[in-house]
Amino acid sequence: MGEAESDECGAGAAGQASACTVREALDRVGGKWAIGILIAASAGPVRFTELERRVEGISRRMLTLTLRNLERDGLLDRHVHPTVPPKVEYTATPMARELYESLVALTSWAERHREAISAARAEYDRRHGGPPV
Q1: Cα(36)–Cα(5) distance, rounded to whole angstroms?
Q2: Do 91 and 74 form a contact (C-beta atoms < 8 A)?
Q3: How many CB atoms lie within 10 A of CB 33?
Q4: Residue 92: is it exposed, middle or buried by C-beta count within 10 angstroms (0-12/13-18/19+)?
Q5: What is the C-alpha to C-alpha distance for residues 125 and 39, in angstroms, rounded to an integer?
Q6: The pTM is what?
Q7: CA 53 to each of CA 37, 47, 61, 84, 113: distance values in angstroms, whole numbers, following the listed order
Q8: pLDDT at 25
Q9: Angle at 54 between CA 53 and CA 55, to 5 degrees
Q10: What confidence tens digit (pLDDT) does each residue in 113-126 have?
């Protein structure tokens, strides 16, 4: 489930709802954009425009949707300062800060192995006539 998708598990048996919640939580924190946002917000309050600059490739719409979903899941706090124009800051909650080390380790692993992964993909595509469909 991507950040922009709605809940698919709303109704059903209690066990199914519990399993869906775990799957949804993992999908949310492991999402393409969520990792960068959570890492940035774990360092302290961060504004929307700063997140736009720090999370490479994210559109304004996807940033907005991802922030709303992370806030909904209790991973971000949103604070609106009563100024003109309004100043909005996002901060990682204690629950999200608990994930910080794991997310940094995951991104570090990906950075260390990106060339090997790229080479493995090229080799696979060469042997199989292209990427899987």
Answers
A1: 19
A2: no
A3: 23
A4: buried
A5: 33
A6: 0.77
A7: 11, 10, 14, 22, 25
A8: 84
A9: 100
A10: 999 999 999 999 99
